[in-house]
Write a structure and sequence with these properties.
The structure is a single chain. The chain is an alpha+beta fold. The protein has helices at about 45-55, 70-85, and strands spanning about 1-5, 10, 25-30, 35-40, 60. It is globular. The protein has a 3-stranded antiparallel beta sheet, sandwiched between helices. A two-stranded antiparallel ribbon has the order 1-4. Helices cover about 30% and strands about 25% of the residues.
């Protein structure tokens, strides 16, 4: 299955990780481009990360020890700065 991440948008894929051997509990995905990007879900293995990075997505994999909210806010702030630089209205 594929889902589309809108241009200059952020989302979390925790519910799409189905492999128990996958080393991360969640992945924050940022589309820093001005084009929508399709990504393959569910996430089954570590190779998925590199495949999505090749599409231009910025990924932040999170382990059990990582603070999700802190990492999401950091990625969101970076995205908002990028939007301002591009002259996109920031919500």
């Amino acid at each position: 299955m594929k889902i589309v991440i809108r241009p200059l948008h952020i989302m979390s894929l925790g519910g799409y990780i189905v492999e128990t051997e996958f080393p991360y509990r969640n992945v924050i995905v940022v589309n820093p481009t001005e084009e929508p990007i399709k990504l393959e879900v569910p996430v089954f293995n570590g190779e998925w990360l590199e495949e999505q990075r090749k599409l231009g997505l910025e990924l932040t994999p999170l382990t059990e020890d990582d603070n999700y909210l802190s990492q999401f806010r950091k990625a969101k702030a970076k995205l908002e700065k990028l939007k301002e630089e591009k002259g996109v209205k920031v919500d």
